[in-house]
Amino acid sequence: MTALNHALDKLQSGVTSLDLRENNIRDEGAAHIAEALKTTATLTSLNLGENEIGAEGAAHIAEALKTNATLTSLNLRGNDIGAEGAAHIAEALKTNATLTSLDLNENGIGSEALQQAAARIRENRKKAVARRWRLCRAVRVAVYWLELTFRPGGAAYRRSMAEVSSMSMELS
From the centroid of its chain, how far is CA 59? Predict the structure, then answer.
């Protein structure tokens, strides 16, 4: 558990990417990682591949995904989560809008559970693109407003320049 404790410390220290593959984490360790995921504000990528995590561990991770707003990539490849664990993850993705990459390969999961998870990831990707476009539009509007407001010769520009001139006279 020393490696896991070190990893949990890293989660709380502001790390953005954590690779814990092949660390024998299992369900108990997944529960601890899930608790840390609920409070981390910086982690965007987590690799838990090849860790013998079962359906119980997947349920803990899924619970954390419901409130985590930073994780965009999660690798659970090569664990033992099965259809039950995949169903927990798919359910969590109904409320999680940030996860856009999920690897569930080699988990003994049926195609139905994989399709549900894939559909949720596609939805999250669409939401992420929409958020980026809204941000771009907001920035464009702000820049346009600044350009019009502070254009040389405009009233706001003249007022600003008058204030700067009076301040420099006061400083002299």
Answer: 19
On the CB side of 41, CA atoms within 13 Å amount to 0
Q: What is the pLDDT of residues 109-151, one digit of tens each?
A: 877 777 777 777 777 777 767 776 777 777 766 666 666 566 6
How far is 8 from 38, CA to CA, in rounded Å? 12
In this prediction, the residues of the chain whose per-residue pLDDT falls under 50 are 171-172
DSSP 1-67: -HHHHHHHHHHHTT-SEEE-TTS--HHHHHHHHHHHHTT-SS--EEE--SS--BHHHHHHHHHHHTT
Question: Rounded CA gap, 3 and 9, in Å?
Answer: 10
Which residue has tokens 């407003």? 145
* CB 38 within 8 Å of CB 68: yes
Place of tokens 């958020």: 131
